[in-house]
Specification:
The protein is an alpha/beta fold. The protein has one domain (about 1-135): Rossmann fold (3-Layer(aba) Sandwich). It contains five helices and five strands. The chain has helices at about 20, 25-35, 50-65, 80-90, 125-135; strands spanning about 1-5, 40-45, 65-70, 95, 120. The protein has a five-stranded parallel sheet with strand order 2-1-3-4-5, with helices on both faces. β3, α4 (about 80-90) and β4 form a beta-alpha-beta unit. α3 (about 50-65) packs parallel to α4 (about 80-90). The relative contact order is 0.20. The chain binds 1,3,4-trihydroxy-5-OXO-cyclohexanecarboxylic acid. 1,3,4-trihydroxy-5-OXO-cyclohexanecarboxylic acid binds near residues 73, 97 and 108.
């Protein structure tokens, strides 16, 4: 199975960015381990800090993959364009957040994406991506 992982703004700085919230590990090194744990499946990874690029990436990944793991980061709480894109594709999406957004500021409690997602994993750190993989493969 081919699975897409799409990360939104500032997640390119994972490991350096607010490590007390998001941890010390960068995404690339985590991805290597994740791919090694699922050798029979192909992971296609994309990251962008730009909303429109994320819209296009969702369209493209939906063509190429059978499932998408999506952390829209701050756009979760603001982007109708990303919510519309998620509703426009047939590919199942698992929404993942590293931090538990419900323990944080109230503006993080609203997700425009969740109604279009098959499921949501929040607060389990990078492990959330592995669990999302298992959910898609299961
Ligand atoms: C995040 C949570 C968002 O509220 C925040 O803007 C992020 C990361 C998370 O993975 O916990 O950038 O999506």
């Amino acid at each position: 199975m081919k699975v897409g992982i799409l990360n939104g703004p500032n997640l390119n700085l994972l490991g350096k960015r607010e490590p007390e919230i998001y941890g010390h590990q960068g995404f690339e090194s985590y991805l290597e381990k994740l791919q090694a744990d699922f050798p029979e499946h192909e992971i296609q990874y994309r990251q962008s800090n730009v909303e429109g690029e994320l819209v296009s990436a969702l369209h493209e990944l939906a063509e190429e993959c059978e499932g998408i793991i999506f952390n829209p980061a701050a756009f979760t709480h603001t982007s109708i364009a990303l919510a519309d894109a998620a509703k426009s594709i047939d590919c199942p999406i698992i929404e993942v957040h590293l931090s538990n957004v419900y323990q944080r500021e109230s503006f993080r409690h609203k997700s425009y994406l969740s109604p279009a997602a098959k499921g949501v994993i929040t607060g389990l750190g990078l492990k959330g991506y592995e669990l999302a993989m298992r959910a898609l493969l299961g």
